[in-house]
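Fill-in record for Probable molybdenum cofactor guanylyltransferase.
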Amino acid sequence: MTQDTPNPESIRLAGIVLAGGRSRRMGSDKAALDWEGEPMLARVVRVLQERCDPVLVVAGERSAAYQGIDDIRGRAAPGIDRDRVRWVTDEQEGVGPLGGLVAGLAAAADAGAQYAFVCATDMPLIAPGLIDELRRGLTGSTQAVIARDAQRDHPMAGIYRTDTAPVIADLVAGGERRMLGAIEALTTHRVGVSEPDWLVNVNAPEDLHRLRAVSR
Ligand SMILES: Nc1nc2c(ncn2[C@@H]2O[C@H](COP(=O)(O)OP(=O)(O)OP(=O)(O)O)[C@@H](O)[C@H]2O)c(=O)[nH]1
């Protein structure tokens, strides 16, 4: 069956922010870390809301991020429309971001979205332009469009069809834990993005210090 290439401008995109995990290398909850005056999670949600509806924040109840998420839920976060944010809990704890991806895609499908832009909470330089460039890479048969830079593929920055949730759930059930495992199993298109900074993520305090120094 051939599928028509969707019109990139008319695709309704949900947003998924993977925000669980342990933040072991950082030593504190990455979602709650300050970036230019706001928690990183709040920043990422605010940027996604420029292109995605709803935005789904996915984390496990025991994850380090829960504190940060609760802070953002409880506090007035400027620029965020809280009615368009949903909070999704990992179905299975401890299987890492791939488990969060399954829960997020299933929730996005329930919300009526055919596609979802997926990213991580630890990407403080993310911008709507990244979503626009990925969206233009979608064709009818594409199950995932992910960003790549000169070094590598970035499955944490991609648009996924929401009907791939069961495929990825099967991978997780089979023991797969790598995000790359998902894109190897799907019909994936890679897009070289014009601004590699959009893809920068911070894992440890030194990453954050370095990025703050160069962003000044
Ligand atoms: N929903 C969900 N998100 C996760 C999970 N594990 C990691 N993430 C998110 O996926 C992104 C990349 O996570 P990693 O840096 O690989 O893992 P981490 O647990 O955050 O950090 P480390 O403990 O230092 O490995 C981050 O935005 C995390 O918040 C998980 O089990 N569930």
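KEY FINDING: The chain has a mean pLDDT of 90.
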